[in-house]
Design a protein that fits this description.
alpha/beta; Rossmann fold; Hypothetical Protein, Haloacid Dehalogenase-like Hydrolase, Chain: A, domain 2; six-stranded mixed β-sheet; 16 strands; globular; magnesium ion binding; HAD_sf
């Protein structure tokens, strides 16, 4: 098999819109793994939200979490590498979010923190296997690897513009990980950089890497890979930079792509 490292985004890619892993995708990923390829899940999720998907696949190994800010081994929850930022550098940013009632959470590699949450919000976190810690002020955390804003599309777009204009996000990368979500991480943290490090450490040339994703936080890994594949449900901008486009996440697009390039 030509491809030795397969990087898969999770939400909107490996999982369908009901956040379920289909039997077709599960069986196909397993077949590719059994044929000798290394499977790495690359997600904006925290590790504790990625491990259950890895378990469903019946796999162990390395995951890339927090949009490339943390690389973790599933065996023993061993942190391989992270890109963290000092929390006290972003006091003005937190104050802007609070004053505009924009929901946000912050993460260390293994934990997620909120200053306040409704029961509805907690129920949503639970769907992703996350049990947030409620603390009075996120500034009490010395360092974080990711901050996520959640709001209506118009609010997210306005916040993104304002934060840039006011210089509140110096040293940070901002990713739209979904229409209603904006992730902020260390300026060097991308799925592409984390995948590059992993491929280098394994001695795998980039032309033997496949990356499959569906949104803007997948751009860098799709560009890095020898074969970058966009999902059918991806924005047109992502489809244009990919070498191929598979069908949507609700049509087992991951399985179809892997069968095409790894199993035939």
């Amino acid at each position: 098999m030509q491809y030795k490292l397969i990087a898969l985004d999770i939400d909107g890619t490996l999982l369908n819109d009901e956040h379920q892993l289909s039997e077709v995708n599960k069986e196909t990923v397993r077949r590719v793994h059994d044929a000798g390829a290394t499977i790495v899940l690359c997600s904006g999720r925290a590790p504790q939200s990625v491990f259950p998907i890895l378990d469903q696949l019946g796999l162990e190994g390395t995951i890339i979490a927090h949009n490339g800010a943390s690389t973790v081994l599933s065996e023993g929850n061993e942190l391989v590498h992270d890109f963290s930022v000092p929390t006290d550098a972003y006091g003005e940013l937190f104050q802007y979010l609070r004053s505009n009632n924009i929901h946000f959470d912050v993460c260390t590699t293994f934990d997620l923190y909120l200053e306040a949450a409704t029961q509805e919000a907690l129920d949503i976190y639970a769907q992703f296997f996350v049990n947030p810690h409620i603390i009075p002020d996120v500034m009490q955390l010395p360092r974080i690897v990711k901050m996520t804003l959640a709001a209506e599309v118009e609010v997210i777009e306005e916040a993104e513009r304002t934060m840039r204009e006011r210089g509140l996000v110096t040293g940070l990368n901002m990713f739209r990980s979904g229409a209603n979500f904006l992730d902020l991480v260390h300026e060097k943290a991308t799925k592409g950089n984390a995948l590059k490090e992993l491929a280098d450490s394994m001695g795998i040339p980039y032309d033997q890497v496949i990356a499959i994703g569906n949104y803007y936080n997948d751009v860098e890994m799709i560009e890095l890979a020898g074969l970058g594949i966009a999902m059918g449900n991806s924005p047109d901008d992502l489809k244009k930079i990919a070498q191929d486009v598979t069908v949507s996440n609700n049509e087992d697009g991951v399985a179809q792509a892997l069968i095409k390039y790894c199993l035939t």
